[in-house]
Amino acid sequence: MNYLYKGWLKIYKKEYKGRNFEILEDKDAVGALVEDTNGKFLLVRQFRVPLGRESLEIPAGCIDKDGLTPEEIMVEELEEEGDLNIKAEDLKLLITFCPNIGISKSTYRLYYCKYNGVGISKAIDDQDVFESLWLTPEEYLEKIEKREILDVKSQLAYYMIMNKKMTQF
User: Fold this and answer.
1) For residue 122, what are the β-bridge partners?
2) Within a domain: residue 76?
3) How far out from the chain centre does Cα 98 lie?
4) Is 22 a member of any domain?
5) Would residue 134 count as lying in a domain?
6) CA–centroid distance for 119 within its chain
């Protein structure tokens, strides 16, 4: 492969029909929308360097640990980012998608699960995440509309689960 850049992310050149394309080789990933017994959803606050500001997102992580299934990695992320003890079998796959299909073939597995308890917003001691927040569906939508939630996985999770709730998920 003809790499143009080899860091944590890699970029390589690929020729197709006489044109050169730059392809991003990044990691597949997982994310989960967690709902507590009060119908609130878990989001985490972290600083995103490309944005130059904080972001609210569902808990997520890269599939980058050998020997672990995507579900096991998601369980680890929920422990680290949300201080939750969720079992892999409690995760329900909502959708698998390619978030950057024009430049990358990486996939994203989006899960949903119920947390058998009441979520409590609190500070989190994680390398990336520093706060967990539990939001009502109305608060979640308001943060999407105010551009406080920008990333596609968190927006997609909200709209998918609200649609499923309207159709008896």
Assistant:
1) 132
2) yes
3) 12
4) no
5) yes
6) 18
Domains: count for the chain: 1
115: containing domain: 28-166
Report the pLDDT value the prediction gives residue 23, as an integer from 0 to 100. Answer: 94
- The amino acid present at 9, given as its one-letter code, is L
Residue 41's Cβ-count burial label (10 Å; 0-12, 13-18, 19+) is buried
Say how far apart CA 75 and CA 88 lie, in whole Å.
6
Strands 129-135 and 122-123: antiparallel
81 found inside a domain: yes
Local confidence band at 167 (pLDDT 50, 70, 90 cut-offs): low
- The contacts of residue 144 (CB under 8 Å, 6+ apart) are 154, 155, 158
Which CATH number does the domain housing residue 97 bear?
3.90.79.10
The per-residue pLDDT for range 61-100, each reduced to its tens digit, is 999 999 999 999 999 999 999 999 999 999 999 999 999 9
The pLDDT, as a whole number, for residue 2 is: 85
Q: What are the DSSP calls for 30-93, one per residue?
A: EEEEEE-TTS-EEEEEEEETTTTEEEEE--EEE---TT--HHHHHHHHHHHHH-----GGG-EE
Q: Is the pTM of this model over 0.85?
A: yes
Average pLDDT over residues 24-41: 96
